[in-house]
Amino acid sequence: MNYRIWRVDDDVTAVLVFLHGIGQCSADYHRYGRAMNRHGIEVWGLDHPGHGLSEGEPDTLPPIPHLVANAEILLSMARAARPTAPLVLAGHSLGAGVALLAMHANGPGAQEVCALALTGTPSREVIMELPGPPVPALLVHGADDRIAAIEPVRRWASHSPAIEFREFGDAGHDLLHEPVRHEVHSLIIEFVRRTRPGRTFGTVPPVRLRALGHHPPALERPISAPIP
């Protein structure tokens, strides 16, 4: 698996691990990474299998446990590289769902996460049946999202004290690439900058990933060196 880093050389205020959506790759998020960098937020972005420079079948959705396992590894690597900076897990669409599942899988990397920043969160039943996240979470959604309907996500978010739900009436699914992206960037930056380690909303039962129809594997290949 390949990943890239938008590095911050001095005064790192937070480290954000970003998981992209299906049909995308980390290279699609240069504007997002640079926007975060300007405020001291270092971004680590993973290419899912079959996406970007990672090997795999491009037209096949990888098994969800594989994606969760890869996210966990990248979280642990980011924490090892930046042991004192607040660690934030972010994702868009498929990546937002994987981020939530990773938090409930509760691996060592996920245990270091102090906040979630999600856009276009999937409205699939397997995600909407999850308990609320155990850390503060910002969920941003487009009111005109025709891929992930907003109403189930809004309803799910309303039941969790951990979630700050924000919607954009003039946006669809791909918030980080639409005209509202600058406002979304600012919202995420402000959320990350006020996030502090240690604030939790209790413990949650871990998700049984086998229930999704796949068996969690060992990674076949280690994640590669960062891409410039």
Oligomer state equals single chain
- The CATH homologous superfamily is named Alpha/Beta hydrolase fold, catalytic domain
Q: Low-confidence stretches at least 5 residues in length (pLDDT < 50)?
A: 209-228
User: What composes the largest sheet?
Assistant: 7 strands, mixed
Rg, alpha carbons: 16 Å
Number of helices: 7
Task: Write down the overall geometry.
Answer: globular
What is the averaged pLDDT score? 86
Task: Please state the second-level CATH architecture.
Answer: 3-Layer(aba) Sandwich
Count of distinct structural domains? 1
Strand order across the largest sheet: 1-3-2-4-5-6-7
**Roughly how much helix do the residues carry, as a percent range?**
25-40%
Proportion of residues in extended strands? 15-25%
CATH overall fold name: Rossmann fold
Under the CATH scheme, which class? Alpha Beta
Number of beta-strand segments = 7
The structural class is alpha/beta
Distance between the termini: 15 Å
Please provide the ordered H/E string of secondary-structure elements.
EEHEHEHHEHEHEH
